[in-house]
User: Fold these one by one.
Assistant:
Number 1:
Amino acid sequence: AARKAGLVSGGAVPIIVAGRTVGIIDLFSRARSELDARMSETLSTLALQIGQFFERVSQQQGIMRLTRVYAVLSGINAAIVRIHDRPLLFREACRIAVKEGEFGIAWIGELDPETQEVVPVAWAGVDDEIGADRLSIRADVAAGQGAVGEALRSGQPCVIDDLEGHGPVGLRRREALRRGYRSLIALPLLVEGRVVGVMVLYAREQGFFTADEQNLLTELANDVSFALEYIAKQDLLAYLAYHDVMTGLPNRAHLLDRLGSALQRVRHHPRERVALVLWDVSRFRNINETFGRQVGDNVLRELARRFRSAWPEEGEVARVSVDQFGALIDGDYEPADIAHLIEQAAAAVLGKPFAVGEHELRIALAAGIAVGHGAGEEADTVFRNAEAALRSAKRSGLGYLFYGPEMNAQIAETLLLENRLRRALECDEFVVYYQAKVCGRSGRLTGFEALLRWRDPDNGLVPPARFVPILEETGMIIPVGLEVVRKVLADMAGWRAAGLPALRVAVNVSPLQLQQKDFVAALQRVIGEQGGETLLDLEITESMIMSDLDSNIERLTELRGMGLELAIDDFGTGYSSLAYLAKLPVGALKIDRSFVATMCSAPESRTIVTTIISLAHSLGLKVVAEGVETEEQAELLRLLECDQLQGFLYSRPLPREEVPAFVRAMPGY
Ligand code: C2E
Ligand code: CA
Ligand code: CA
């Protein structure tokens, strides 16, 4: 055809997306040597740009898909909390899937174990007649060979990426095809390990259900299953009122009840007391977020079993909140005996690691104890005292603390520490250490993070975890935070004077600082004192930014206008909405250390890291991984195209005097 049209020369350039050829630019010319070297170079660039454009579009579509699935997940979770009626919950789940998730059709079927048939019990996006359409799940009949049969037999989700030309066509699938739906997922619903039903979702897009969507939807099916599990209990109300369904332990209400009667009883026995212990599982949220809720639930069940068998038979053990357990003991006990009991129980509970798949997880506990003698004491008060003791135990990092004189001593110590921190600011005992960040691709230095230390004349160098919480509680973080910026700017100027190249330094900002109305102005003043260009970055924790989004966006935009780069710190540990992330005027995400630490051993962490990186890139954000300790982690992060790496592998936090030598020894200096 080209020749007929008088075209005599031509060429073709492939369009490549993610290493795969997906298209071609094919060109013809009337002249003989039109496609010379320069021209073909231009064409290659064009093909490259088209490829990049495709890649971005497909990533953005991926995010929108995930956002839809997230919306369904949270909608259905809210419904589970609200609705304790099985048919109603099913109908609502389907309605949410169609409305929030824009799935074309959603239906739920229950399995009749007698006939091995699935009976549709709720649906949305499809006509009523589906209710009559029973579906066998037997592998030896045609109707059982579809996705539903497969999912129910295997207990695993089953996906069909393209409905067209796929096995026998039932009523639902015919209807779906007619309306233009192309893919489906069948999610089995399980109660106590037995398949009891299925939830089926149809999507308009071919291949909609990628691994990420499947993971989220599996979680959704687990949640619905979980709801079914406890709706199934006949004596639901009575049981729920006093028990925690997941672990089978009594709940907080029950414990308070028992505490009340124990206090009544010991009132008449002067030598006896009641001890209430509240245990808190440290950083339980991290377990949930790193390994998923199912793993978290298993860990809690195992903890419940261990607590129960570690505590004396005659005492009570209860689950009082998501990650807190309570234990009660009464009798002729001295505080020392109780401490002994607690130590024994903690050793028994924590003695063995917790198995998570093929990994082993270590857990830490904190405990707060309140002792009651019965005279005029209310259960509520004793409970609150134990909670207060637990809070100080957690804050101090001590294993357990008593409410009472022991605890007062602790409070006195905190007050003392406050005073010493006040003096530290006056006497200039705060110093800044610097930790390098390097480019993932080239290994070159890209900048530093400033990390605060307290050079305590009595105890030497104190890390921030020990005093930043107190600075925040007392508001001292505001002057100290500004002092950090002042010191960093002075150090940067010093390095420049010593002939080092200009380097960016990131400073951590406490939520409390950002909340100050005049934060931006104060920062501007400090920067103004120094003069020159600002190569300052700020790191702000994720939870903070999301808490007061609108006013934060305004403030962050202002900071950016001043030339400061902003990064979201500890990303992945909070609850950022994907939709909001795009609105935030930030330039980078820092993947939380906990994910980096486990990414080589835990596939769940790796999935999170991979998702964060591709998500960030598609939003045009840079990604920094913190806590990189091994070459293996660095290698994997480089493969995932993480932009910057930070961690002990490259450098410990260094005092400012050591920075110039460090910079000069880096590759590419
Ligand atoms: P962060 O912002 O997450 O800082 C990173 C922490 O990880 C630092 O702890 C750093 O020493 C540590 N780290 C770096 N590389 C590795 C590694 O490879 N492995 C391990 N295990 N750890 C690594 P650091 O200096 O103790 O600081 C703790 C936290 O204190 C910081 O966490 C930050 O939230 C806070 N902080 C530090 N300086 C300041 C400050 O000037 N102002 C405020 N508000 N908070 C600060
Ligand atoms: Ca940081
Ligand atoms: Ca961090």
Number 2:
Amino acid sequence: MSGGLFITLEGGEGGGKSTQAKKLAAFLTARSHDVVLTREPGGAPGAEAIRKLLVEGASNRWDGMTEALLHTAARRDHLVKTVWPAMGAGKTVISDRFFDSTIAYQGYGHGLDLATLRALQNIALGDFKPDLTLILDLPPRVGLSRAQVRGGTETRYESMAVAFHERLRDGFLAIAAAEPGRCRIIDADHDVEMVHAAIVNAVSTYLGGR
Ligand code: TMP
């Protein structure tokens, strides 16, 4: 699977990850990268079927460990069917979320043991990691009100308490502090173009140093 580049975008609700992932894909395509834009949960037919189970319905539909197992099963399918083949072909893969979301949401958010979650990722993925992770950070109340404006049926996580979202924000910041080589925090409490400029700066610096 080596050859290509794997960039992930992470963060809480309403931080504009999907918009920013698209803009980053366009930026890198214009610089001759062969880009595959994908997302989690999802990114392959089987993983998208699992996504529906995870993002729809009542907030207490699954307990934390069941959620972690479903996300991790979807992730394995996404890697096997989409990410690894694309990287093997030398492509640049941009994923809207990856395993840091499991640590932040199911670990920090739902309180599952972090070492157990890391071991689970290791069983499913080996030691595979993103080359670069951009963590879009903003206060949960701002993000949740943006997500509410968006509407739709995928509201299961948005309907969890603000305290849950505060904990997972702390989780993302702790991940970034623990892995400064891989992770960059992007202040997402700005307009789309400003956030895009910060992302372009982080990615260009990373690519320049490779
Ligand atoms: P999205 O809204 O960014 O598409 O993500 C769907 C939801 O899934 C979002 O609320 C975050 C949640 N999620 C987890 O709880 N754990 C995970 O491992 C992933 C990938 C997403």
